[in-house]
Specification:
It is a single chain. This protein has a domain at 3-49 and 81-91. The chain contains three helices and two strands. The chain has helices spanning 7-16, 32-44, 46-51, and strands at residues 53-57, 61-65. The protein has a two-stranded antiparallel sheet with strand order 1-2. The two termini are 13 Å apart. 2% of the residues are buried.
Length: 104
Amino acid sequence: MTPTNEPAIARFRELLQIPTVSRTDESEIQWQPFDDFLAALVRLYPRAHETLSREVVDGHSLLYRWPGARGGEDPLVLMAHLDVVPVVDEEWEHPPFAAEIVGM
């Protein structure tokens, strides 16, 4: 199986192709890609969404809760972000949202 068709990599690449670009001025942010990203997470990772509780915070931030085996003891925090800063396409060797696999 090559990396380009391995299911986990395919899911990751699909998410990378969604242009969730943040801006300093929030009025300039295109929110539809963020909505698309949140919907893609549910579609691409259904088992996680069956197990975890998900709360959308302030419109586009996510908080997942994963119940522990001992009723919430020993909490664990995993953090990430789903936005990127604006880019100039011409400064990239490959399109920034193409999620191309190179050098294989």
